[in-house]
From TrEMBL:
Glycoside hydrolase family domain residues: 38-262
A matching Pfam family: Cellulase
PANTHER family per record: CELLULASE FAMILY PROTEIN (AFU_ORTHOLOGUE AFUA_5G14560)
GO molecular function terms listed in the Swiss-Prot or TrEMBL record: hydrolase activity, hydrolyzing O-glycosyl compounds
Bilayer-spanning residue ranges: 275-297, 309-331, 351-373, 407-435
Protein name, UniProt field: Glycoside hydrolase family 5 domain-containing protein
First and last residue of the signal peptide: none
Organism of this sequence: Alexandrium monilatum
Amino acid sequence: MVNSSQVTPVVPLELLPLQTKGRWIVDSRSQRFRLKCVNWFGASGTQHVVYGLHKRTLQDLVSTLVTWGFNCVRLPFSLELFFTNPPVPGSKTRAEPAMAPGISGMDAYDQTVAAITGAGILVVVDNHSSDSGWCCEASALDGVWFTHEYPERRWIEALSAIARRHRSNPRVVAFDLRNEVRDTPTAQVVWGSGSVVDGKVLADWPSAAERAGNAVLAENPSLLILVTGLCYGHDLRGARDRPVQLDVPGRLVWTAHSYHWYFWWHHDIFAGKGTGAACLGLSLVCLVMAVLVLGRARRSGRRGTTPQACLEVAGAYIGFTGLVFLLYSVATRSVTSNEACSDRGRRDVEPFLQSGSVLLALGLLGIFLSIALRVWQCRRRKVAGDQESGGEASGASPSHRQGCMACVVPVLVGLALALGAVAFFTLSTVSYWLLVDHLDRAWGFVLEEGHDYTAPLLLGEFGTDKQDDFWQGLIRYITEKDLDFAYWPFNGQKWNYEKGWFIEETYGLLDSTWASVREDWKLRDVIGYTSPGR
C-alpha cells in the first residue's frame, strides 16, 4: 500500500473539501479545481475486487496513476458487493500481499480506497449496478436504481453506509449515485412525476436522486453529489425544466457518459470524408458542364432551358431533400429509440420528420405541376402542328433540338444538387459542429451560467480503441469546455464472464501486463502525458 508519508500528495488536504460555484468545481480557496479522473473497475463484478492485483500491487498501480498525472479515481461498486460482502478469490489478489486470501469484498474495496487516497488522489464512489457483473445490457432489470432484490430503500441504505464508512477520509470527495440510468423491460425512467402506465412503472429519476443525495449529505455534507442523465447517462434535457435540488447548496455535479455508439453516424455513413469529397467533386463537374452547355446555347441563339424543366428539377431536388430528412428521421429513431431509451429518439427526430414531410410534399407538387405544364404545351403544339402544312423533311426539327437542349442544363444542375446534398450529408456527419450541437443539446447546456440547472459536469465515462474523427472531436470538446472527466478505463484487462478468465481491455490505458501504457496517443489525448522515450 502507498505510504502517504513517503510521497508528495497529489491533492493536498488544505485544498479540501471541494464545492461548486456556478458551472465550476472549486477548492477550499474558491479556486477552480479540475477533476482529472480515471475509472478503475472490477469491484462491481463477480470477482469483487479491482482488476490488476493478480499481476501488480496496489502501490505499483497507484504509483502509475500518480506518474501519469491523474488526481482522481472513479471506483465502481455493486449493491450486491455491499450487502453480501463475498470473499474475493485468492487468485485475483495474488500480487497484493496486504490482501489475505479470502478477504471480503468490502474490506478489499476499503483497502483500495485507502491506497488511492494515501497517495493524495481523490476518490469518486460509484454505484455502478445492483447485481455484480458486467454493465449495462438493455434487458437488465437494474437499469433503474430499484429491483426486487434491492429496492430503493436498500440502495439509499448502501450509499449512506458507505458515506459514513469513509466520512473520516477527506479525499473521498464525491458519490456518483447511480451509473447509466436507463429504461428496463419493467420500468421507464422519466424526468418528472412517476406513476404506472400500461403496467410499466414510470420511474421519476430526479426525485429519487434528491432522496439519495440528501441521505448521503446527511452522513457527510462535504461530499459532491453526482447525478447522471437518462439513456445511459447521455440525456440531461429534463434538467432544463426540472433541475435537481439538494438540501446542501454547492454540492450538485451533473455527470454524463459519451461513447461513439451513442451517435447515429458512428458507422462512418457512406465512408465519410472519402465519399463526401468524391461527391463534391462530381457535383462541381456537373455544374461546370451545365455552365458550358448554357453558354453554347446562348451563343447559338437557342434557349438553354424551359420553365417546366426548371420546375421538374426544383421539385425533384426539394422532394429529394425531404426524402433525406425522412430517412434520417427513421434511421435516427431506429438507432436511438431502443429498449433502454424509449423517449429519446422520438424527441430527436420530430423537427426532421415534420420538415421532411413538408419538403417531400412540395417536391411532389412541383413535379406534378411540371408534368401538367408539359402535357398542356404538348397539346398546344399538336394543335399548332395540325394547322401547319405538311411535307417537311424528315429528321430532328429545330424545336426538337431546342427541347432536348432545354432538358440538359436542368438535369446537370439537378445532378449537381443531388451529389452536393450527399456530399454535405457525408461530410457533416464527421464534422465537429455536428458533434458540438448534439452534445450541447443533450447535456452541455448545464454549463450555461445563470440558470436553475447550472452546475458543473463531470464526463464520467468516455473511451475508445481508435483515434477516429469522433474521438478527436470529443477530446476537442472536453478541452474547449474545460470539462472535468473520468476516462474509461484504467484497466489493462477485463473479466470474460462466459469463459471465466481475463481478456484484453482494448479501451484500457494499461496493456495486459498492467505495467505499460497501451497506446501513447490515448494517454496523451486524455491527460497530456507522454511515456519516456516515445
